[in-house]
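Re: [ENG-882] Designed sequences occasionally contain unexpected residues at chain ends

Forwarding the minimal case from QA. Structure tokens:
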């Protein structure tokens, strides 16, 4: 996968970065933690071909457009229908209906800011668009929070690759376990919130 990412960036430049980040949102196994640091490293080593600001905006564009791919199915399909489709074809995307349920719980707990926060959390950042669509979140609000969260994430990864230089792969190496810990904390928080609501309803 690394060789494919390198070839895409080298051959297509900014459009290649935007394409990769778009695909990263559609197919979660493609890691932004590798794409953007590599793009940042490329901007450092070949400034005549790519500059760090162009890399950042290309990554941001691909990330925001990719988020819309999950927003509209949530908006126009029922939750039951969407989960059925995901269970049937989700293996291709490495997601399941349970992932949608977790994202939905996170969204309803946090409200609109869930889109902003969710864009910073691997494992949640892609699917947070689904409950936003299911809840008919205003498109402009969705784009604003998505762009804001994506800008922080893309900017961090791009700058890390630019600073680390040839050691850009360390971003993915060290961020991966941190991401898993953050995802685990979010899942536990959502589970605790559900239990709290159930106890409250029982007392009522």
């Amino acid at each position: 996968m690394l060789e494919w990412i390198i070839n895409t960036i080298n051959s297509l430049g900014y459009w290649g970065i935007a394409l990769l980040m778009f695909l990263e949102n559609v197919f979660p196994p493609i890691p932004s933690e590798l794409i953007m640091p590599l793009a940042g490293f490329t901007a450092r080593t070949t400034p005549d071909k790519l500059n760090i600001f162009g890399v950042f905006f290309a990554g941001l564009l691909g990330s925001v457009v990719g988020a819309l791919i999950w927003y509209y199915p949530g908006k126009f399909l029922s939750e039951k229908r969407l989960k059925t489709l995901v269970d049937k074809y989700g293996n291709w995307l490495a997601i399941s209906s349970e992932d949608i349920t977790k994202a939905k719980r996170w969204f309803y707990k946090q409200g609109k800011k869930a889109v902003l926060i969710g864009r910073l959390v691997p494992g949640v950042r892609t699917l947070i668009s689904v409950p936003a669509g299911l809840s008919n979140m205003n498109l402009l609000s969705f784009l604003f929070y998505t762009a804001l969260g994506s800008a922080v994430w893309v900017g961090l990864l791009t700058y890390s690759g630019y600073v680390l230089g040839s050691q850009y792969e360390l971003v993915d190496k060290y961020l991966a376990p941190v991401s898993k810990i953050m995802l685990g904390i979010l899942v536990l928080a959502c589970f605790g919130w559900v239990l709290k609501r159930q106890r409250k309803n029982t007392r009522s």
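QA comment: On inspection the terminal residues look reasonable. The chain has one domain: 2-203. Proposing we downgrade this to a documentation issue.
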